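Hey, quick one: can you model this chain's 3D structure?
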Amino acid sequence: MEQFWRMRFKCNGHDFTSESWTKNLVGIWYGAWRSEEFDSLSNGCEDDSELCEKLTEINAQRGLEGKVTNPMLKTVWRFWGMKESSDWVFAQYDGCLHVAQIAQGTPFDVAEFGCDKEVYKARPITNKRSFRLSLLPDCFRVLASAGQANCHEVHGTRPLIEFLCGCEDEGDVLRRWRAMP
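Sure thing. Here's the predicted structure for all 181 residues.
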């Protein structure tokens, strides 16, 4: 079953949303560790507590303070678990809601979006569409503020984002919206 994820691309006060989206990427930070290190460690650790400790050790070795916490790790697991060609992501910037599907490919590192010693772990996106919020029915404005994490699965607003992902442009949204019983 497809899932819908609200993505935020902010790290330590820097907003990379438009730059990342323009390059057909979504991603997260959460430390100085690299994607391949996470893949290797996640297969070798007995539980999430041990994995948090190992990732924290890598951060310390690379001069990044702070502990990798269980809530951080849960966000990483959500990001790693996104399903190719079925899950949808969305972001908001420049007065628009932007939607796309997760494309084929495993998470990888993008040095260009590194932030204060943190490594940007990215996934490719495809089937991108943009919708100007000012042209959509008012109820779609709640999507712009959905969730708090960098990678948040929407539940309560799922019907709205699912509807939007099925449309090509604002005109299509309005036609389908008006045709609803």
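One thing worth noting: Helices lie at 17-22, 35-44, 48-61, 70-80, 158-165, 170-179.
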